[in-house]
Amino acid sequence: MEELLRRSEKLTTVGQLAAGVAHEIRNPLTTLRGFLQLQLETNKLNTKHVDIMLSELDRINLIVGEFLILAKPQATRFEEKDVRFILGDVISLLDSQAHLCDIEFLTHFNIETGLISCEENQLKQVFINLLKNAIEAMPEGGQIQISLDYKGSGEVSISIVDQGIGIPEDMISKLGDPFFTGKDSGTGLGIMVSQRIIQSHQGTMEIRSKVNVGTSVTITLPLLQGRSDPPPRPLR
Ligand code: ADP
Ligand code: MG
Question: Which residues form a coiled coil (predicted)?
Fold first, then answer.
């Protein structure tokens, strides 16, 4: 069955988040400490151990990196940008990766202007997170539809629809919980970070999914100038 969620309503507090980060970082740190202790006591660290240590370090780096996106000082510098160009940039960035996975991006930009007030890099990060999830959900390849449409007169909607494995119903309510991942090497931070960024842009994010059919994520953002057509009727 299909389920719909307005996720920006369910956000964790900073305290919960900090506890989660501490927990997620402590695990790899414990592993690293164990191996160093082993080296100290037995002098028997081999290449396999070092490989594990490196991948644990990479994991810490990945987790810290995802949080830095939220904490960057320029995060508050909102500028007037056209969402068509921001999304277009991200699509070009990921195009070759998609191609390698036998995935085709199909774009439908049904708007004439998409001026919004935003922090460009943060918004790019959201589109990267969502497109990566879509790519990762389609191991056999397929198409990802990316559309821009007006919603009402004052908002733009951005939707990303994949033909991937989908999300089981009992998992949908957990999306956006920090560190909730269905992947072996996932961080479970992409959706949470994206929701926070969209919320700080006064937008909303909805996720619908059907197992073995696909997933659609729809973001709405306020436009700076409402849609220019139809023109306002002159007062007489
Ligand atoms: P990560 O990708 O690191 O696991 P995310 O927060 O980006 O973390 O996603 C959390 C989980 O939600 C994923 O692990 C995956 O199980 C599920 N998910 C997210 N997007 C999709 C999608 N487009 N199709 C299928 N599953 C998805
Ligand atoms: Mg992800």
Answer: none
In this prediction the pTM is 0.81
What is d(CA 199, CA 222) in angstroms, rounded to the nearest whole number? 11
3-class DSSP state for residue 54?
A: helix
Q: Which residue has the tokens 């949908």?
A: 172
Q: CB-based contacts of 160: which residues, under 8 Å, 6+ apart?
A: 127, 130, 131, 134, 144, 145, 146, 216, 217, 218
Q: Which residues form the pocket of ligand 1, taking CB atoms under 6 Å from any ligand atom? A: 129, 133-134, 137, 162, 164-167, 175, 180-183, 186-191, 215
The per-residue pLDDT for range 96-114, each reduced to its tens digit, is 999 999 999 999 999 999 9
Write down how long the chain is.
236
